[in-house]
Write a structure and sequence with these properties.
Distance between the termini of chain A: 25 Å
Shape of chain B: globular
CATH topology of chain B: Rossmann fold
Strand order of the largest sheet of chain A: 3-2-1-4
Strand order of the largest sheet of chain B: 3-2-4-5-1-6-7-8-9-10
Order of helices and strands of chain A: HHHEEEHHEH
Helix content of chain B: 25-40%
Radius of gyration of chain B: 17 Å
Number of strands of chain B: 10
Shape of chain A: globular
Distance between the termini of chain B: 16 Å
Oligomer: heterodimer
CATH superfamily of chain B: P-loop containing nucleotide triphosphate hydrolases
Number of domains of chain A: 1
Chain lengths: 140, 252
């Protein structure tokens, strides 16, 4: 995502990515830092990544969108270019209350990139349009 | 923009290199009145159209009844034909247009403009709907930037009418500022006389960058004059006429 995260988060994700790249286990202190910054969402996001719940969907046009399969079995749409998730927690905690930086689904996208286990799916241009428009009906 | 609008306001002076593909951050054009926003968006469209890059898409709810400016650039058919107007009449139509932008054939856009965002937000004003509209505008511009690759980025300017600066009544202003790091405020300059229409334009490219200000005068003949806002005499004397200062006509 071409969105600026706070520097401390960028640095943390970068160090986690370096550990994965070197074939090492992600240090516990990084996971603790993640939990310190994101609270309970960190564990929930890691759980989503473990369950390979993040899918990057792309069409021949090059346009992309993420879908995250939530713990309840519901699928949420997240834009690839800026912070937006169709889940109720994003609307409430991130947009309305501004007491969270990201919802667990957006955090899971960042973590799936770090862990390199983001699923890939190709669809037609028309199907991608439908996915982007379907978002509007997903809200709680 | 953001960059195209900054170049309009800078009237080609000390505004950095043109045509280098820089687009600047997504920009929210705020303030009143609406007609001035439309004119400035149109000027930005003509500026971008003159750069030799991709076409410009100008979205607004209602068809324009006449060209908002009467400058040499506005009469230049070569530039005008690079500006494509589309008139989504509702939020679903606007979302459909943005969500399917990647299906349209043709070259990638160099600039995406939306006039009158408040008309769409008033109709469908839930916080998540507003966020999705803003995010989808950004996503569409990002898609065209991706297509442009090394040859530049697609700029984005969205106009939202408010009654005054930092207007808390403006629909979802705080939310929109989350998605649009750059903002340009237009405030009426009460010193305008006769049929002239004077505005003070204040541009902040980000929260950390200094504010740059201009005086914008719309003349009855459709021309637009822009001069830097005086930094020393920020409180003009009552007898000062906004058109009496040394001004430079915009010649795009």
């Amino acid at each position: 995502m071409a969105v600026a995260l706070p520097e401390v988060v960028e640095e943390l994700l970068s160090e986690m990515a370096a550990a994965v790249r070197d074939g090492e286990r992600i240090p516990d202190e990084h996971l603790s830092s993640l939990k310190f910054v994101f609270g309970p969402s960190a564990i929930q996001a890691l759980d989503l990544v473990d369950r390979e719940s993040v899918t990057l969907i792309s069409s021949p046009s090059g346009r992309r969108v993420y879908q995250v399969l939530g713990s309840s079995g519901k699928t949420y749409t997240c834009l690839a270019s800026c912070h937006y998730c169709s889940c109720p927690a994003f609307a409430f905690s991130v947009l309305r209350k501004s007491d969270s930086l990201l919802c667990k689904h957006l955090l899971a996208i960042y973590l799936s990139q770090v862990m390199r286990n983001c699923q890939q799916l190709s669809v037609s241009d028309k199907q991608l349009t439908d996915l982007l428009l379907m978002e509007k009906t997903q809200e709680a | 923009m953001a960059e195209a609008l900054r170049r309009v306001l800078s009237a080609g002076r000390a505004a950095g290199p043109a045509g280098d593909g820089a687009a600047g951050p997504p920009l929210l054009l705020l303030g009143t009145p609406r007609s001035a926003q439309t004119s400035l968006l149109f000027a930005a469209a003509l500026e971008a159209a003159g750069e030799g890059r991709g076409p410009v898409l100008f979205l607004t709810r209602r068809p324009l009844q006449s060209l908002p400016l009467n400058t040499p650039a506005a009469r230049n058919p070569w530039r005008l034909q690079k500006v494509r107007f589309q008139y989504p009449s509702s939020v679903p139509e606007l979302l459909q247009l943005l969500a399917s932008a990647h299906e349209a054939p043709g070259p990638a856009l160099s600039l995406l403009l939306l006039d009158g965002l408040e008309e769409y937000l008033a109709e469908d004003s839930g916080i998540q709907e507003a966020a999705y509209l803003a995010a989808l505008l950004l996503d569409t511009a990002a898609y065209f930037s991706h297509r442009l690759g090394a040859s530049g980025r697609c700029g984005l300017v969205v106009a939202l009418e408010t009654q005054k600066e930092a207007d808390s009544d403006a629909p979802h202003l705080t939310l929109l500022q989350r998605y649009f790091p750059a903002q340009c405020w237009l405030q009426p300059d009460t010193l305008g006389s006769g049929q002239q229409h004077c505005l003070r334009a204040s541009l902040e490219s980000s929260k950390l960058s200094p504010r740059t200000e201009w005086s914008v005068t719309f003349l009855p003949n459709g021309e637009m004059k822009i001069i830097p806002w005086p930094t020393q005499a920020s409180e003009p004397s009552p007898d000062k006429n906004c058109s009496s200062t040394e001004s430079q006509s915009l010649t795009l």
